[in-house]
Structures are given as C-alpha cells and as structure tokens.
Amino acid sequence: MNRDLKLEAPGQIPPLRLLAYFLVPGALMTLAFVAIAPVVERAGLPAIVALLVAIMGVLVPIEAGVVARAARRAGGVHQVIPYRDPMALATWAWLVPTLIVAAFVGFGLHQIIEPPLIDALFGWLPAWFVTPIDLDAVGASSPTVWTATLFAFLLINGIVGPVVEELYFRGYLLPRMAYLGRWAPLVNVTLFSLYHFWSPWQIVARILGFGPTVYAVRWKQNVYLGMVVHCSLNSIAVLLVASLVSSRL
What we know:
Blueprint: H1 15-42, H2 48-74, H3 77-80, H4 89-110, H5 114-121, H6 127-130, H7 143-173, H8 184-194, H9 203-220, H10 223-246
Helix pairs in contact: 1-2, 2-7, 4-9, 4-10, 7-10, 8-9, 9-10
C-alpha cells in the first residue's frame, strides 16, 4: 500500500490559502521586528533582542495557535499531525548526521554568493536588519546583557522556534499539500524559505540547506526528525555566534 494514502485524511489546503498559511506569519513577525528594533537599539540592547521578541510575541503564538485550534476541533494533536511514524534507532543514528552535513554543505555553498548578494540587493536596509548581532559593536553592551541575550537566543532560536516551525510547516502543512505529489517537499521548503522575510538573502541557502530534511520528513513521515535536525542546526549556529561574541567581550 502507498504510504501516502493516509495523507488523504487531513483536509487539503488550496494553493492561495496555503500561500497565506506560509507567508502571513513571517510577514507579521518581520513587521514586529522592524517596529521593535529601533526601540531596542535606543535602549542600548543588541538588535537581536528585537528579533527574539518578535519570534516569541508574534511567530510562535500564530503558528502554535493554528495547530492548537485545529487540534481542538479534531479532538487532539494526533489527529492533525499524521507524520509520527516511529523510526529505528539505527536510522536516527545515520540520517540525522547526514542531514546536518547536507545542510552545512548547502549553506556553505551559498556563502560564496551571499556577501555580494547582500551588497547588491539589500544594501539599502538598516544595518541592524542585515546584522542583528554586529560583532564590531559587541562592546556597546555589557557582558551581563550579552550573557542574557545569548542564553535567550539559544533557547528561542535553538529550541522553541524550530520546534514550533517544524510542528507547523512539516507536521501540519506538509501533509495538507499531498495533492502536489512529489513536488510537495520542494514547494514546502521554498515557501518556508520565502517566509523568512527578515533574511531574504538566504532564500536559496535555506532551499539548498534544509531541502534534504524536508524530503526526509516526508519520506520517513516523522515530524520529530525535522525538529531534531532544525534544532541542531540552529543551536550550532547560535553557539558559533556566541563564541565570536565572547571573544570580543
């Protein structure tokens, strides 16, 4: 039996409505970031604080709220998140590292064109938008402020954000795109990349870096796989940034 037959259960979302599900949360979060960042900077805090506030104040409530509302109507989260197939420990052991390496390769390749891309297309944006953590301005905030900021960065960007995003984009939306057939994962990761309005220069990077994970989630029909890989990638990135910040304090 085709494993995708069970995808008939979740109601399929038509294209225009699907586009709204993907892009509206990112647009609202970006507007919040833009509104909050000048206030944060005037308070002498790193601009990344504004992004973290926008994630927790706008993005997480919207995405978690959509899933929670659907779960209440359907009688439980298990009714709206079909991608919960178990995976053997051996599969976890090889698949997670493989996807992490694939992501590093994808993001790494994009780094070749990212700086000139930002200069050519996004140089008009405020510095705090392009670089929420400016390593050249680390000394403007105290070590105490940076310790609290980096801890919040790890918690929100490394754990809370990725878990909610995977629950929403791969757990809830991906099964409701089954009518797109084999194109569903590609469309999912492309719209997911576009939804990051706060870092548009990384659209291609996210498709290259995270595309294999989206395909793997669909293949294994396991949303937890996406959560583990996404949390791992974001946490590694946060820790690398934290080490750079610490070296300049």
